[in-house]
Design brief:
mainly beta, six-stranded antiparallel sheet
Length: 686
């Protein structure tokens, strides 16, 4: 029946199960796993593995992993040092890419690692061939990301490979070159080291540059970069610039154009010369911000923040030194400095601001600080201020000058995640929430301290913490007691908490000894580099288990409050719907892509009523013995991906269910005057 379309017309009475195996007793049809294992990290690659590209060995073994970058398409790119290569030190570094949107631990990870380029390789760019030189630890490259994709996108296989911008060293001819992977998976040469700038009034020094991530605009891939120049007319007064690269469109002639440069006039009404440029930040739409120091000897009174959107030819001043800071009752404070400037995809800027004023009583300088959000037109909102009371009677917030508060992470929702004194906080203009505090219990152990948190554009926060797990006597008779500690990585929205990885955790046959680095995308998926106790490093992929909150009351799939982490499931989600009592869940209304969906695996009955939005799973819909998938009356529902039915599929009067993948199982298909269309074939039992 595989490859054929099977149509079941369900009559007035409940139809006897047409799928039940006659030759074997009923058995569960889906993967046999513990649902708790859905959150176990999956190993992607480890030190010692043979280096391959599209499953074909290309020489050598992985020796060390450096930078890792993960985007919302589920693309992971990683920079690695190799060993046992054919040419020794001449071909022992490379850049690699793999899709991590498949594989949960019970389904093998089948996506191949692809070698993007490698030291010693010859790559073609345009009409020229170049030899790739060493890719050092500090090598600059950026993987393109996009905001969250529409929920009706069907399948990660449809996602395109996104751009990579790289400051690529080549050995023939020698020197760094800027290259960009376009949407056709080709490499473009953007700029050459020591070659004339686009304005032909200086030569580029790309080795000192900074690049932003690629972006797409009008179906063209572009990016921006900051670089130094030499042989300029003004010497050290006009020797740094920002450039934008985009393939020519419309009446545009040059693909590389200058955005800003030292020695040029600043934007706005000040008319000051820009004496310094630094801190370039770009977003997914191509907008950019940067720090500009004006023509003044005092850095505290001479800086401004400048903004340009991708469609504009000019940049403008947003705010800067001596501008008033928004602070209730303290209007006399002015900005002294701004740090950790971040541009989100709404063109809003988050930053840590240092403030100063003359104390009205003493006349001496008085300092303050806080976290702020600015719009491109200079409207500034104070989110958290030094001295404000912390939640849960935690005392006042400390100074954000670096004493008691760490750097703040900023996201699309204008939220900050930050460490301050003994806690980690999530703050926005709507208020501040304490996520965790030193001394709290987590998994039965006391939290000792935190590192700086990470936040994604959905408001999920990744917290790295140290737990006190016990004590032992010091072998030194005079040493007293030694506190045993373990490192843990925690994902939270302030309500639900999930462990991503922990020292001492067993993964496969290995035990985690250290967490070396990690990245998170907007779906809540995390990629991390760990060191096992046998001193072997590995790259792992983890994604949270999405569950139904037991306190949820309205039964609506599309209500974020009904789900763990306060978010509807997404294409990275393993969704398990269970509750202490019987529940009915209606929806989703829009087409939805998830990794896997589990219904009725526990003792309580779960009925999922579908009808409008298609539900597509990468690895399958598993209907357990206490699960019912119901198609509402006169509704047409579509299930993409395999369906393993050990419960009930019920099609109400006039309803139609289209199963685009394989249908397997020992469950029942029932209903009144309904139709089931099976496009992927039927497999009885297991």
């Amino acid at each position: 029946m595989i490859g054929m379309v099977c149509v079941l017309a369900i009559g007035i009475a409940v139809v006897p199960d047409p799928l039940r195996s006659v030759s074997a007793p009923p058995a569960p049809s889906g993967p046999i796993i513990n649902l708790d294992d859905l959150t176990d990290p999956v190993e992607i690659v480890r030190v010692g593995d043979v280096v391959s590209s599209n499953f074909q060995p290309v020489g050598g073994r992985y020796d060390r992993f450096y930078q890792i970058q993960l985007n919302n398409n589920g693309q992971l790119a990683f920079h690695a040092r190799l060993t046992d290569t054919d040419e020794g030190e001449l071909d022992d570094t490379g850049l690699y890419e793999v899709s991590v949107n498949i594989g949960t631990g019970f389904v093998p990870l089948l996506a191949p690692v692809v070698q993007i380029f490698r030291e010693g390789d010859s790559i073609s760019i345009g009409d020229e061939d170049y030899t790739v030189a060493n890719l050092p630890i500090t090598w600059q490259w950026r993987l393109q990301d996009r905001p969250l994709l529409p929920p009706d996108l069907i399948g990660p296989a449809a996602l395109p490979r996104l751009g990579i911008a790289a400051l690529l060293n080549i050995s023939d001819p020698p020197g760094p070159n800027l290259v960009l992977r376009d949407d056709q998976d080709r490499w473009q040469l953007v700029a050459r080291n020591f070659e004339p700038a686009p304005t032909e009034d200086g030569d580029l020094i790309l080795s000192t540059g900074k690049i932003s991530a690629p972006y797409d605009r009008f179906q063209q891939r572009g990016f921006t970069f900051q670089t130094d120049l030499f042989n300029t007319p003004g010497g050290n007064t006009d020797d740094r610039a920002i450039y934008r690269f985009e393939p020519p469109t419309g009446g545009q002639v040059d693909s590389l154009r200058q955005v800003a440069r030292t020695g040029s006039l600043s934007g706005g009404n000040s008319g000051e010369l820009i004496a310094g440029i630094s801190g370039l930040q770009g977003n997914a739409s191509g907008s950019l911000v940067f720090y500009g120091e004006n023509d003044s000897d005092d850095p505290d009174t001479s800086w401004s923040i400048y903004f340009q959107d991708s469609a504009s030819e000019t940049f403008r001043r947003v705010f800067g030194a001596e501008d008033f800071a928004p602070s209730e009752g303290l209007e006399a404070f002015r900005f002294q400095r701004a740090f950790e400037l971040t541009l989100n995809n709404n063109d809003h800027m988050g930053f840590r601001g240092l403030l100063i004023r003359d104390d009205p009583a003493t006349g001496f300088p008085e300092l303050s600080s806080g976290l702020y959000v600015a719009t491109p037109f200079g409207a500034i909102t104070e989110v958290v201020a030094e001295g404000q009371p912390r939640p849960n009677d935690g005392g006042p917030f400390p100074s954000f000058r670096g004493g008691g508060a760490g750097p703040a992470a900023f996201n699309q929702l204008n939220q900050f995640a930050f460490r301050a004194s003994d806690g980690v906080f999530l703050a926005s203009a709507d208020g501040t929430v304490e996520l965790a505090r030193e001394g709290n219990l987590y998994e039965g152990n006391v939290i000792d301290r935190f590192f700086n948190p990470m936040i994604n554009d959905q408001g999920l926060v990744l917290i790295r913490a140290i737990l006190n797990v016990g004590t032992i006597p010091d072998p030194d008779p005079d040493g007293g007691i030694i506190t045993l500690q373990e490192e843990v990585l925690i994902l939270t929205d302030g309500v639900d908490y999930a462990t991503v990885a922990r020292q001492g955790q067993e993964i496969g046959s290995q035990v985690v000894d250290d967490i070396l680095g990690y990245e998170m995308n907007d779906h809540g998926a995390v990629v991390l580099v760990v060191r096992f106790e046998n001193v072997v490093d590995a790259i792992l992929r983890w994604r949270p288990r999405w569950g139904w909150r037991s306190a949820a009351g309205d039964g609506v799939w599309d209500n974020p409050a009904n789900w763990t982490f306060s978010l509807p499931p997404n294409l990275d989600s393993n969704v398990v719907i269970e509750a202490p009592t019987d529940i009915r869940v209606a929806g989703p209304e829009a087409n939805t892509q998830v990794n896997s969906l589990w219904l009725g695996q526990s003792l309580s009955a779960v009925t999922a009523v579908v009808g409008e939005g298609a539900i597509t799973t990468t690895e399958g819909l598993m209907i357990g013995p206490n699960g019912v998938l119901e198609v509402a009356e006169n509704k047409r529902a579509t299930l993409g991906g395999p369906v393993f039915n050990d419960g009930v599929i019920q099609v109400d009067d006039g309803g139609q269910l289209v199963i685009a993948g394989l249908l397997a199982g020992n469950g029942r298909v029932s209903g009144v005057n309904g139709t089931v269309v099976i496009e992927g074939g039927i497999a009885p039992g297991r």
